[in-house]
Design goal:
Largest sheet: 5 strands, antiparallel
Number of helices: 3
Order of helices and strands: EEEHHEEHEE
Shape: globular
Strand order of the largest sheet: 3-4-5-7-6
Amino acid sequence: MAASGGSEQPQRVTTQTAAGAAPVLAEGADTAGDAVGGVLGLDPSAAEVHLTSRPESASTARRLALSVIRMWGLPQYADTVELLVSELVGNAVRHTGARSFGLRMRRRRGWVRVEVRDPSRALPCLLPVRDLDTSGRGLFLVDRLSDRWGVDLQPRGKTTWFELRVPER
């Protein structure tokens, strides 16, 4: 659990999913192991990483995503990925009532895809944004800064994702 001014203390746990074993972050243990970029021993480009649904998990998700972007040699996309991951994670934490959410990143020819999965089937809504609005800008930013985005309904929940065009490898 995060203390005042602290950060999430995750632990690696193995769970079985359709795609095989996936790491899970839970409260209360050390961050053993070397990681992608030295972050937490977890790699959302290798398997979905599960995070507890708390505001401080956004920081963990950003660090993991930035590690993958650097590993892929795409530092010019770091700011955009960091912001958009924050927005998708913020929506999952604030609006779904879930205990956890998943983060997954994929790279294919000319594209980077970032996915946030949660157990809610409620669809996010892109609202019009006015100059003086102080909230409700998350999907507006995703819509404006990504090349494409969407929501895939799953049998139990949904995956909200965005994609960025990137140079070929």
